[in-house]
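ok trying this again, last paste got cut off
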Amino acid sequence: MKIAGEAVYVDAAGKRHSIEGLGSLPDNDELQSLNAAGEFSFDKLSCGEMKISGSCEGKSLTAQNVSAEGSFEVAAADVAEKFQLSGSAEIDRLRAKKIVMESRGGSIGAIKCDKLKIFHGEIHDVGSSILSRVFGGKVSHQSNSRVRIETIDAETVELENCEVDVIKCRDAFIGKNCAIKKLSVSGECTVADDSTVGETIRT
């Protein structure tokens, strides 16, 4: 694990450490908590409470709760409770009990959770200096940008500005600017006027 910026972490024994500038930790260390700002990368990370801002890149993440702002690129993220992101995500597989994303772009392979909410928001007004640095001043403000997702498996799905291949859920609330190819739903279902659903299957 490598950090360029500032970080405060608590190791498995409960001891608090801090990093300023450049620092590194073995990837096999389990952390109780991590709070980092700047550029952060890892191969495999196990952490209790994780809060990061800036740029995060990794292969495998296991955590209790994750709160992130900026660019989040991880191959696989398994979060026991809540995953919250304000920024852009590039994730192959994301699992959590609850997922809340304030995003204007990015792509996710597979999402599995109980409750999912993705909305457009005003993220260019939140941590704008971080986002500007991470994206090189290319943060999109376009109202028609979308988060690209291959599959969603959840109980409740609430989406805005998303393009999804397949959704399987109980309740679906499809908000503005969405394009859904296939939606399997067993409960409540609403679709905004400017969104499209190619196929709806009642289960």
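PB: full thing came through this time. The CA atoms of residues 104 and 120 lie 6 Å apart.
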